[in-house]
Amino acid sequence: MHCPFCRHPDSRVVDSRTSDDGATIRRRRQCPNCSRRFSTSETASLSVVKRSGVSEPFSRAKVISGVRKACQGRPVSDDQLALLAQRVEEDIRSSGIAEIDAHQVGLSILQPLQELDLVAYLRFASVYQGFDSLEDFEAAIARLRTAVADGTAAPAAPSA
After folding, report:
1. Average per-residue pLDDT in the chain?
2. What angle do CA 108, 122, 90 make, to 5 degrees?
């Protein structure tokens, strides 16, 4: 790490702290040449590879935007969507993979969305699991009914 003041090619770490729920490390450094102190911030990059092959940084906002469409008309708040996006990002980061396929991001949204709202889950799953027929919807609904009966899925909230 070059000193931003004298451009000396080395520095000493004086203090390290995590921030942003552990996603960022803030380091306080000191230059051995000029003795001035400065801070650095380190984050692990997470890239999403789209179908076209283009790679772009992971965006919670894009997760929220996609899920918001499935939640249209459902009793789901913006705070709940933000928490869902955070959970998806944490799940992807915990896998240790720095570059993930966009389709895999969509699939990783399914479980938290199922726990949030079953109707929104079905809407979203119909796209990411490629439902082609009514039988696909019927099979998914049957699995959800079994999960609700077993207590592994939350029942759908009533429509307003």
Report:
1. 89
2. 20
